[in-house]
Design a protein that fits this description.
With about 280 residues, the protein is α/β, with parallel strands linked by helices. The chain folds into 2 domains: about 130 residues, Rossmann fold (3-Layer(aba) Sandwich); about 140 residues, Hypothetical Protein Tm841, Chain: A,domain 3 (2-Layer Sandwich), CATH 3.30.1180. Helices cover about 40% and strands about 25% of the residues. The protein is built from 10 helices and 12 strands. The strands form 3 sheets. Strands 9-8-7-12-10-11 form a 6-stranded mixed β-sheet, sandwiched between helices. Strand 10, helix 9 and strand 11 form a beta-alpha-beta unit. The chain starts with a strand and ends in a 6-residue tail after the last strand. InterPro entries: DegV, DegV_C, DegV_domain_contain. One of its GO terms (molecular function) is lipid binding.
């Protein structure tokens, strides 16, 4: 029995890594509106059917692990595509990951280590359930215009110079903490990740230092990603966290539409032992 995993570009998986693990990635789209502003669109049912057909040629079973329905309608189209393929004798298991960014990408990688869709889905669910994504943006209005953030949070961040540290999950985007000033917010972004990894950067109860996998995302400047990865790795060592790997990649084009320039993100996910 063999398994092929399909995900979408919201997973922010480097192409070489996805190819090496046999993961098929379906792109989310950016669309230029009449007023010149950009918006986004989910993959079409036809595109997903093509991707699932390709995956079915590579393996005995297909598992589609997609971006959370709180941020995209991709999983709705995925289920429609799976129903159509089922009538043709091609079974596809569709999973709403409840995640995005590296939390989705690392879950897809964990799933791809399984031999069948049932075990792959279980690994993806465990990964996302124990993952945390933290991110910063320079201008909250991009998220507000895209309907990803409520007007009150965007107003506070814009008018008072407060930089919220944000997170995303099954319920959408929420605020972890608010910090004044860009440099201080970046330090707190790292501190939140260190704490989630079992380090000692923040006071109060913290999880044990179990092995973790990390993902670092940046907007339009690779130097920002390299600098964040270096500072994060140093902080993890200092705090005694156990890091198995760090994946660095830019946010995908569709996500950048909503995040705006200069966004930074960190994902902390569990290190799952490969299945026996």
């Amino acid at each position: 029995m063999s398994l092929t995993v399909v995900t979408d570009s919201a997973a922010c998986l480097p192409a070489a890594l996805a190819d090496a693990r046999g993961i098929v990635v379906v792109p989310l789209h950016t669309v230029e509106a009449d007023d010149g502003a950009a918006t986004t669109a989910r993959p079409t049912v036809a595109e997903l059917i093509d991707a699932y057909r390709l995956a079915a040629r590579r393996g005995d079973e297909v598992l589609a692990v997609h971006v959370t329905a709180a941020l995209s309608g991709t999983v709705d189209n995925a289920r429609t595509a799976a129903r159509e393929l089922a009538t043709q004798g091609i079974p596809v298991t569709v999973l709403d990951s409840g995640a995005s960014g590296g939390a989705l990408g690392l879950a897809a990688l964990a799933a791809a280590e399984a031999d069948d869709a049932r075990r792959g889905a279980a690994r993806a669910r465990e990964s996302t359930a124990r993952s945390r994504l933290f991110f910063l943006v320079q201008d909250l209005n991009h998220l507000r215009r895209g309907g990803r953030l409520n007007r009150g949070t965007a107003f506070v961040g814009g008018t008072l110079g407060i930089r919220p540290i944000l997170t995303t999950g099954p319920e959408g985007i929420g605020v972890v903490e608010t910090v004044r000033g860009a440099a201080r917010a970046r330090r707190h972004l790292i501190a939140q990740a260190v704490r989630a990894a079992g380090g000692t950067a923040l006071t109060g109860p913290r999880p044990p230092a179990a092995p973790v996998r990390l993902a670092v995302h940046y907007g339009d400047d690779p130097a920002d990603g390299r600098a964040l990865e270096n500072d994060l790795a140093d902080a993890m060592v200092e705090a005694g966290a156990v890091v198995e790997s760090i994946m660095r990649s830019p946010a995908d084009p569709a996500s950048r539409v909503h995040l705006g320039p200069g966004a930074l993100g960190i994902v902390v996910a569990p290190h799952l032992e490969p299945p026996r």
